[in-house]
Amino acid sequence: MSLINDLHTPANVLVCGASQGIGLALCTQLLARDDIGLLFAVSRRATSSPALEVLYREHPQRLVRIDCDAREEHALQALATEVSTCCDQLNLVFSTLGVLQEAPARAEKTLAQLDMAGLLSSFTTNCFAPILLLKHLLPLLRKQPMAFVALSARVGSIGDNQLGGWYSYRASKAALNQLLRTASIELKRLNPASTLLSLHPGTTDTQLSRPFQGNVAPDKLFSPAFAASCMLALVSRHGPAQSGTFWAWDGTPIAW
Ligand SMILES: NC(=O)c1ccc[n+]([C@@H]2O[C@H](COP(=O)([O-])OP(=O)(O)OC[C@H]3O[C@@H](n4cnc5c(N)ncnc54)[C@H](OP(=O)(O)O)[C@@H]3O)[C@@H](O)[C@H]2O)c1
Question: What is the mean predicted confidence (pLDDT) over 78-87?
Fold first, then answer.
């Protein structure tokens, strides 16, 4: 099945958040496909990730590793410049960076645990960085069919919030969803063959979720490889008509 609707040439792909977890699993699966051209694997420590090094040895012609702290706008500008020296079009971008509990960001249970540093840190990584990634890559996304996919989280759904807690993570993902929805409306005009999606990968066994896996039933905890294969299946099933929507790993829509 083709990954990007109506694209008849190999897709150039960028994964931001590629050094581990779901982003790394996406890189592995993308490089195994023959409909992928260049793959840009981006994270703060992409060039020192042992797992990306292994992939690079297998695919030296197709994998480009770039160190970039997506919280820094000048670094995003430099990223876009570097990518544009290798190709003039990206067809698929995954934003897989995210933070739940990495100081100063905290998975707050109570209002008393909220502070400005934690809120700012969560919003900067989970929401501001992905939308500014889209802004800086936009010149590379305007001509051909393209998809920009951000890993959001079901807990970012306001309609679905029955449990409370995780204030800044929830709110930063809700804000990310709103920014993507807004961008999808602008992009419909700039590139009618564009698809922007917010996706929930399911609870997945990665560094991000590890401190919170205690109450998760084993059959509800996915491997990064399973989550990545679900994300790729969702990308191939959705096109411009679904741009600006929010989906779970199993293909069910999630309320805003
Ligand atoms: N795991 C879950 O259960 C789950 C559930 C729902 C949603 N999600 C979402 O899915 C996405 C992927 O999560 P994951 O569990 O795979 O996380 P993870 O294992 O912690 O991986 C996060 C990746 O993002 C990169 N990263 C972090 N900050 C960055 C920055 N400032 N600039 C560039 N790269 C950065 C990290 O690499 P470096 O350290 O090298 O920068 C790493 O490669 C996140 O958006 C998360 O919120 C996860």
Answer: 98
CA 232 – CA 3 distance, rounded (Å)? 7
* Domains of the chain with CATH codes: 11-248 (3.40.50.720)
**pTM of the complete model beyond 0.90:** yes
C-alpha span between 145 and 7 (Å, rounded) = 6
Adjacent-strand bridge partners of 65: 41
- Of ligand 1's listed atoms, the one at least distance from the Cα of 19 is 43
> Whose structure tokens read 């959705």?
238
| 125 Cα–ligand 1 center, Å | 9
Tokens 């960085």 — which residue?
129
| Sign of the CA dihedral running 71, 77, 80, 85 | negative
- Can you say whether the dihedral through the CA atoms of 216, 221, 227, 230 is positive or negative? negative
Q: What is the pLDDT of residue 5?
A: 80
Question: From the centroid of its chain, how far is CA 254?
Answer: 17
